[in-house]
Amino acid sequence: MSRRHYNLPPLTTLSAFEAAARHLSFKNAAEELSVTPGAVSHQIKALEGDLDTVLFQRKHRGVDLTEDGKALYEALSSSFGRISKVLATIRDRTSGGKVTVGSTTAVAALWLSPAVIRFWRDRPEVNVDQLSQDRPFRDRPDVDFFIRYGQDSDPNLSHTPLFRDHLVPVASPEVAERLIGASLETLAAERLIHLDSEDRSWTTWPEWFRQLGCNDTIPIESRVNSYSVALQLARKGAGLALGWQRLIQPMLQSGKLVAVSPHHLTAPKQFYLVGRPDEELSDSARALKTWILQEVENVSV
């Protein structure tokens, strides 16, 4: 008789293998599991010894799965997905229908929070937790889904397109009036407020000018690490901010910020809802996701 009821190796070895196989990196798996790469390597070697087979092909700059490794990863990924779905259902039932959604601080303040407030008016029984951070949402199993500009590098995450925004220079009414009809070269000589973000997917001022055909050197005189601060500086006449037209639509409609015409750029990437597949989401999470998608359809820019 097997020493284990299901004849499985220790779950710690399976967990380490699944993370390493998903990332194809012992280092990234270690970061996710909050252990050292050496600990992950030790667990993988123990699993390979238990199974008497090689699961990874070690290369100079990473690892690849062997055929046995691919078969085991497919089985684990599918099984862990089913377990995750059951756990989400249990948590949803015991937590009173809680949903956790992530976004950048700017997206939360300018777009997501007002949408959640409208959702609560329709579904007051659903508790929504918002996580706002200006760095990538990596390895956050507590997040049902998050709003991201551009696709995430994790192929296991589901991507639902939201919208493609437009990028326009924005400024205070006085500055915008002075720059009506200004050339790209003239705009490049203005004080530009640059956003310094850990997430490199965001379009920057130099990229904006380059996409519109202006290859002038763009000086960096003012740098902030918060989009909300960039907009505040622009409102006060301290320079030009790169405006995401859909996100800042309320500020444009109120006249607090004015788009500097006529230059604009369709954003190179779309915004997405990124997270677990629908079949792994709780009923409450699916309800909020559906609501967000309806919000996008009902608003045009």
UniProtKB/TrEMBL annotation:
Keyword Ion transport belongs to the record: no
GO MF assignments: DNA-binding transcription factor activity; sequence-specific DNA binding
Transmembrane region(s): none
Entry annotated with the keyword Transcription: yes
SUPFAM superfamilies cross-referenced by the UniProt entry: Periplasmic binding protein-like II, Winged helix' DNA-binding domain
Keywords: DNA-binding, Transcription, Transcription regulation
UniProt similarity note: Belongs to the LysR transcriptional regulatory family.
Protein's UniProt name: Glycine cleavage system transcriptional activator
Species classification: Bacteria, Pseudomonadati, Pseudomonadota, Alphaproteobacteria, Rhodobacterales
Name of the gene encoding the protein in the UniProt record: gcvA_1
